[in-house]
Amino acid sequence: MTNAITEWVRFDWPLSGRQFGVSLASGYTLRAAGSSDLSEMRSIVRLAYETDPVWSGKTGSIETNVMERVEARIADPTAHFVLAECSGQVVGLNGVAVASDTQMNLITGICVAADHQGRGLGRALLGRSLEWLRDQGLSVATVTTDNRAVAAHVYRHFDAERVDNVEYPGAF
């Protein structure tokens, strides 16, 4: 990570009665993930965090922490993992849960392979995830990240309320 001090920011999305239009660029599809996808999910987590300079030097511990959460929740009916694919290859993922020990509903962060970023995949993954949380009866979804993280730009979509300078005691 750079020498800058982490400034945590939280994003909250109101969900009740909301629609989250999800559109994909040509050639991409979204689908639910299962246990057989764990290896590809690990690769996408690693690739996505490695390409964000904010997490430089921490990607190993981030990958371990994120994948521990994924493996613990992949078969949990109160969690949902959505994958983005292109030509049958997993190129993005997001995981959400109705509740988690991190006090966040997004449990993986938006992860998109670098060569597929900038095509709306992060927004599509986020929209699909927020729809799932809404359909589970949740009224507000939340995530906390570093203010400078690439994902912070994606999280601002869908009328998220941004709360700056929050505490994140469960950080890496």
Q: Can you walk me through this structure?
A:
Helix content is 28%, strand content 24%. The chain has 172 residues and is of the alpha+beta class. The chain has one domain: 3-Layer(aba) Sandwich (Aminopeptidase). The longest helix has 15 residues, at 59-73. It is globular.
Question: In short, what is this structure?
Answer:
With 172 residues, the chain is an alpha+beta fold. It has helices at residues 38-50, 59-73, 121-135, 150-155, and strands at 8-14, 28-32, 79-86, 89-97, 111-112, 140-146, 161-164. The chain is globular and about 40 Å long.
- What would you give as the CATH superfamily? Gcn5-related N-acetyltransferase (GNAT)
CATH class identity:
Alpha Beta
Terminal-residue CA separation: 12 Å
Number of helical segments with 4 or more residues: 4
User: What is the SS-derived class?
Assistant: alpha+beta
- What's the count of strands? 7
- Rounded mean pLDDT score: 91
What's the SSE pattern?
EEHHEEEHEHE
Residue stretches low in confidence (pLDDT < 50, at least 5 long) are none
Beta-strand residue fraction: 15-25%
Largest sheet: 4 strands, antiparallel
The assigned CATH architecture is: 3-Layer(aba) Sandwich
Give me the CATH fold name.
Aminopeptidase
Strand order of the largest sheet: 2-3-4-5
What attributes characterize this protein structure?
4 helices, Aminopeptidase, three-stranded antiparallel sheet, alpha+beta, globular, 24% strand, four-stranded antiparallel sheet, 172 residues
